[in-house]
Structure formats: structure tokens, C-alpha cells
Amino acid sequence: MKKVNCWEFNRCGREPGGKKVKELGSCPAPSMSLLDTIHDGAFGGRVCWVIAGTMCGGSVQGSFAQKYSSCEVCGFYLKVRTEEGLKFVQSSRLLAMLRGTSKL
To answer: Which of 49, 53, 80, 95 has the most CB atoms lying inside 10 A of its own CB?
Structure first.
């Protein structure tokens, strides 16, 4: 079964070439090469909750600290957690990767 990325699941239109890029700007998740292949996603597509500037509830979100409480109840986040099970990479490790202080 192919695992979907956040922009496919949420259909936000902010992926490269998406229909809402002009209106809302490009999403940073599809270009986050540091997080490519984590949870079998493309770039940051399956770890969007740790990426500042992704969209939730129809609006662009801020930093991890500002948005994580809403991410914890997001249908996509819950789907990834369920699909990955024991292989789920904790947010603290993902954030360390973004800071360049850790690798998987």
C-alpha cells in the first residue's frame, strides 16, 4: 500500500504546481530534503507537524511549539502514527534532525 504525503491527504494545493500556491504560498514540506523518506514519505510529507509553515484548518501555521497541540489531533498525524506503529519517529528526533544535531 502506498503511503500518502500530507499534501495528498489534506489536498491543500500548496505542493509544487498546486492550485493554491499563488494564493497561499508554497508549502515547505515538499522541499524539506532533510526529512526525505522518513515514514516512507517524500521529503517532509509524512512529518509535516515538525515543519513550520505547513497548513492546518485552512490557515498557514507557525512553529512546532505553536502548532503541535492541533497536530496531535489531526487526522493525518493520527494516520501516520497508526501506520508506523513502533517505527514512528518521535518529534524530538525529527526536530534534532532539522537543527542538524541528529540523524536517523
So the answer is: 80
Transcribe 84-97 into DSSP letters: HGGGPPPHHHHHHH
Cα 88 from Cα 59, distance rounded (Å): 26
The answer to whether 80 and 73 are in contact (CB under 8 A) is no
Q: Is 56 helix (H, G, I), strand (E, B) or coil?
A: strand
* Cα 84 from Cα 89, distance rounded (Å): 8
For residue 59, the SS3 value is strand
Q: What is the pLDDT along the chain (104 residues), one digit of tens a residue?
A: 789 999 999 999 999 999 999 999 999 999 999 999 999 999 999 999 999 999 887 788 888 999 999 999 999 999 999 999 999 999 999 999 999 887 77
